[in-house]
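User: What would this chain look like folded?
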Amino acid sequence: MIVLGPAESSMEPVFREAGVPVLKDLDLSTVAAVARLASAFVGNDSGVSHLAAAVGAPGVVIFGPTDPVRWKPMGPGGDASIRVLRGDPIDSIEVREVAGAISKFVAQRQR
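Assistant: Here's the prediction, encoded as structure tokens.
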């Protein structure tokens, strides 16, 4: 399942064609509830990534030119629950890097 915000609306057809359930236009309390139940999340350097981390969701946060040392989300699990991937430009981060990082969190959560 994927939660899309207004900035990601152009990606909706890609996920739907792949058969991925899409949630959109959610209020922040609903996003927090969904994140809390998620095995893991992938987000960018944004408030929603901070919200997901704050409710205890493990995940991968993708950074571009901003400094993750200063701006990375912190969750109750500390550094063990959030993996930062940084690329400048941000699109230099490979899909396989993200998939590899997130698969470790999903495997841990399913135990």
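The helical segments are 12-17, 28-37, 47-54, 68-71, 95-109. If you want, I can go into more detail on any region.
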